[in-house]
C-alpha cells in the first residue's frame, strides 16, 4: 500500500477507502472463498473484514505490512463465521468425502484449486488453508481452533492425500 493512500485512509477519506477496497477486495475474496463455500458468506465476511480494517487502521503503524495485517483480519473473520455456524470439530465421519464425477472444462488453475478444496470436509479444509495457504504453524493452528497439534498435522496430511486423489480424478476425466 502506498503511504499516501494509507494516510488518507487513516484520515477516513471515503475515496481513499474505496480505492483501497478496490485494490484488495479481489485477493481477500479469494481468501474468504478458501474457507467458505458459499459466495454470499464470503461476500458478507469480506464486507465485515473491510469494516474491521477501516476501524482498526489507526492501530497499524507501518503501511508496508498492511496486506499481511489485513489478511490476518480476513482469516480471523472467516474463522469466526465458521465457529458461529457450528462449533469447530474434527470427527471421524468428516473423513469421508464424495469425490466429484468430473471437473468442469476450461477453468483456471486457481479456480480449479478452489473448486477442489470445496470437496474437503470443512474442518480439514480450514486447517489446510491455515497451514498451507496462510503459513501458520501447527502450534498456532491448534491454539486458534482449540485442537491438538497432532490433529492439525493429521488433517493437513489427510487434505493433501484427498487433493492428490481429486487431481488424479480430474486428470482422468479430462
Automatic annotation (TrEMBL):
SUPFAM superfamilies: Sigma2 domain of RNA polymerase sigma factors, Sigma3 and sigma4 domains of RNA polymerase sigma factors. Keywords: Sigma factor, Transcription, Transcription regulation. GO terms for molecular function: DNA binding; sigma factor activity. InterPro entries: RNA_pol_sigma-70-like (IPR039425), RNA_pol_sigma-70_dom (IPR014284), RNA_pol_sigma70_r2 (IPR007627), RNA_pol_sigma70_r4_t2 (IPR013249), RNA_pol_sigma_r2 (IPR013325), RNA_pol_sigma_r3/r4-like (IPR013324), WH-like_DNA-bd_sf (IPR036388). Gene3D superfamilies: 1.10.1740.10, Winged helix-like DNA-binding domain superfamily/Winged helix DNA-binding domain. It comes from the Bacteria. Residues 20-86 form the RNA polymerase sigma-70 region domain. GO terms for biological process: DNA-templated transcription initiation. Residues 112-163 form the RNA polymerase sigma factor 70 region 4 type domain. Belongs to the sigma-70 factor family. ECF subfamily. PANTHER family: RNA POLYMERASE ECF-TYPE SIGMA FACTO, RNA POLYMERASE SIGMA-70 FACTOR ECF SUBFAMILY. This is Sigma-70 family RNA polymerase sigma factor.
